[in-house]
Recover the amino acids of this structure.
C-alpha cells in the first residue's frame, strides 16, 4: 500500500533521530541532581528512542534521507517464510518456530499478567492478522542486529507483492514509528507513513490515551513507551555523551556510540526550545535524606 502522491503529508516539525537507551540507565550524575531536587522522591529518566523535535526547527538525523520508499533494497536478499500465528501488533511466530519482532514500529501492548490491554492493542493485532494470515508466505529482511535480548528475530516484513507490512500498519495508525540503532533501514519512508496517519487522525493519532504527556506531569506510573513534550531546560556534554533535561523532570541521554546520527551542536542548541520525544521511560527512586 503506497501513499497516493496527492495525499502525501507535507513535512512536519516532527523529525525523529535515534537514541538508544542503556538497559540500566545512568542518565546524569545523580549527586548533582539530588542536591537540586531535595523535595523529589522520584526522578524520571528518559531512556528515549526518538529525539526530538523543536517547534522552531528539527534535529534531522543523518540517516533520514537514506531511503524514501519501503521496498526491500535490491542489494539485500530477503528470506521466504510462512506465518504460524500473530502474537500482537508487532510480533509474530513463523512455522519454523522463530519469533519475529517487526523493525521500525511499536504497536499498542496487549495486557499481560492481569493488566488491561492498551487502547487499540486488539485492533493492531487484527490488522497484522489481516495483512499476514496464518500459513501465508512472508518475506523477511533481517536487521543489522538480527536478534534482540529476548532472542526474537528483528526484521522488516513484506508480503508476496513486496509491500512493507510496517508501512501499512503505520498508514492505518496501528503503531508508532521507532528507530533503534544499528537497525536504521527504512527510517525515512516509515516516518512518512506515520506522518500520513498523524495528519489524518487515524488509529493511535485519534486516541486521547496516546496524546503526548507534558514532561512536568510525568509520574512513576508513566513508565514504559510514551510520547513526551516539554522545554529543554538543560543541555550538557559528559563522558562523551550528550545530556538533555526537560522541564527539570525528565533526563535524557544520547550515548556516545549514537552521536554519529546527530549534529551535536544542533542538539545542544535546543536549549530553551519546546520538543517532542518518544521512547521508554524508567523511573528511578532516590533517597533524599
Amino acid at each position: 500500500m503506497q501513499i497516493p502522491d496527492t495525499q502525501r503529508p507535507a513535512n512536519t516539525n516532527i523529525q525523529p533521530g535515534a537514541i538508544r537507551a542503556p538497559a540500566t540507565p545512568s542518565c546524569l550524575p545523580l549527586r548533582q541532581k539530588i542536591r537540586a531536587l531535595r523535595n523529589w522522591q522520584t526522578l524520571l529518566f528518559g531512556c528515549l528512542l526518538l529525539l526530538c523535535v523543536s517547534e522552531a526547527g528539527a534535529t534531522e538525523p543523518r540517516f533520514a534521507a537514506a531511503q524514501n520508499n519501503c521496498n526491500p533494497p535490491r542489494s539485500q536478499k530477503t528470506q521466504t517464510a510462512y506465518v504460524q500465528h500473530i502474537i500482537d501488533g508487532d510480533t509474530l511466530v513463523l512455522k519454523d518456530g522463530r519469533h519475529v519482532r517487526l523493525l521500525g514500529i511499536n504497536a499498542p501492548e496487549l495486557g499481560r499478567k492481569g493488566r488491561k490491554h492498551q487502547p487499540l492493542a486488539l485492533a493492531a493485532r487484527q490488522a497484522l492478522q489481516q495483512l499476514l494470515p496464518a500459513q501465508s508466505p512472508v518475506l523477511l529482511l533481517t536487521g543489522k542486529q538480527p536478534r534482540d535480548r529476548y532472542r526474537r528475530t528483528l526484521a522488516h516484513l513484506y508480503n508476496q507483492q513486496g509491500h512493507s507490512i510496517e508501512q501499512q500498519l503505520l498508514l492505518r495508525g496501528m503503531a508508532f514509528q521507532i528507530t533503534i540503532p544499528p537497525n536504521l533501514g527504512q527510517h525515512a519512508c516509515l516516518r512518512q507513513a506515520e506522518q500520513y496517519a498523524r495528519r489524518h487522525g487515524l488509529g493511535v493519532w485519534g486516541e486521547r490515551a496516546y496524546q503526548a504527556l507534558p514532561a512536568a506531569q510525568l509520574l512513576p506510573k508513566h513508565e514504559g513507551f510514551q510520547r513526551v513534550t516539554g522545554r529543554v531546560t538543560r543541555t550538557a556534554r559528559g563522558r562523551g555523551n550528550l545530556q538533555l533535561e526537560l522541564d527539570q523532570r525528565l533526563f535524557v541521554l544520547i550515548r556516545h556510540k549514537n552521536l554519529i546520527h546527530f549534529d551535536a551542536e544542533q542538539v545542544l542548541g535546543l536549549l530553551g526550545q519546546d520538543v517532542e520525544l518518544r521512547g521508554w521511560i524508567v523511573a528511578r527512586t532516590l533517597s533524599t535524606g
